[in-house]
Amino acid sequence: MLRRTPLALLLVLHCDRPAARRPPEPPAPRAPDASPDAASSGAPDAAPDARVPARLTVTVKNTGQGPIRIRTNQDRNELVRAVRLNVSPGTSDRAALFAQGTRVSLFPIGRMPLCTSDAGAGYGGLGQPEDVYLQPNESLEVAAWDGVQREEVLDPQRGVCARELPPQPGRYRVGLDQGESGDYFPVCDRALFAWPPSPEAGALRLELHCRPPTTDAGRIISPPAPRPVAR
């Protein structure tokens, strides 16, 4: 009996040994996100400018001697006109401000779904323009760009939808579009930026200087009175 006891103990110890653990299974492959920041946002349905840091912001500043009216539009492509310029790298900024180019859409096109999404195609309006009045030296941020270019596509299967693509390298000109301002147009300068920016540049900031329009005699034209709010 004394010689069998160690063997029994060995058998008990062997039975009590925990089972060997299986190696953890690799995680299931995840579909690629539409943008590198989508996974970290926690909200894939959020608006692009809510989950992607702005690569460029556009601000309007009243540098004149009187108030101005800026007619805004929630469709930023209708408010901020962006053009990729047909210029050489050696073209001066002064010449580039008046050079020909191709208009591009830097901001989401209304509520138009992407051609890669499951949503139905079509265009959703964004409401009526709103008026903002700026006193001298006051500023207004009118747009923020996430670094993605958009274009409207007529898909034979889905109809009208939007496509996102990387912007082409080159020089771009940005200006304020006040086409729906009636007879009142503030005088606004345009600004240039190069894409892609240098790595140390960080987020780009463009400031468009605007002034009140004047008569031929140089008298400042006051902006129209604010429109009454519909009740």
Average predicted confidence as pLDDT: 79
Low confidence ranges: 1-51
Class from helix and strand fractions: alpha+beta
Task: Describe the largest sheet.
Answer: 4 strands, mixed
The radius of gyration over CA amounts to: 29 Å
Shape: globular
Strand order in space, largest sheet: 6-1-12-10
Q: Report the span from N to C terminus.
A: 101 Å
The arrangement of helices and strands along the chain is HHHEEHEHEEEEEEEEE
> Number of helical runs?
5
Quaternary structure state of the chains depicted: single chain
Query: Count the strands?
Result: 12
Q: What proportion of the residues form beta strands (DSSP E)?
A: 25-35%
What fraction, in percent, of the residue positions are helical?
10-25%
